[in-house]
Design a protein that fits this description.
The protein has about 200 residues and is mainly alpha-helical. The protein contains 22 helices and no strands. It is elongated. It starts with a helix and ends in a 7-residue tail after the last helix. The relative contact order is 0.08.
Amino acid sequence: MGSIMSYISSISASQIQSFTTSQVAGLSTSQVRELSTAQVAALSSAQISAMENEDVLVLSGAQIGAMNTTALSQVYDRKSLLAASQISNLTTGQIAAFTTASLSYINTADIQRLSAAQLNAFQTGVVAAMGTDKIQALTTTQINQLSTSQLNKLTTTQVQALTTAQVRGLTSSQLNSLTTAQVASIETGDIAALSATQV
């Protein structure tokens, strides 16, 4: 296997699957960088879990995007933040598999890098579990793209934490989807900042 390891990019996906966890752990960062998306997609959760931390951090966005959701969970279990390029390449399927525990591995800067499609892929329960710092990190464009079902699940504490700019970014449909308790929690100054088309 040693000679094959020197030509990692030529190894087939099925051969990659036969690697032991020790062999995966033995890959150098340069070898990890050379892995194709097909090779990464073939890796099992146990193999991903065996990767050294420094190897996980050099994975490209395309490689991260190629992981199946079960394998990706092993990346988050490292309790280390993904790089910006890795976050932006997460598929909607991967994000839909996020749990509330996954949120601790994403910071506010990561939140701002998410596209509308990625945000909409979050389960409503995961959105409801976001800290107020992450809620406030959402840009006005992102707020505008949240689904009404996601907004409807926000806690009153989260709604109260919305900035004036974020409240002004809500559409009339989004505002109408809020519960009575949510509306009551919007700060007075934010209510006053609503436009005529919102109320």
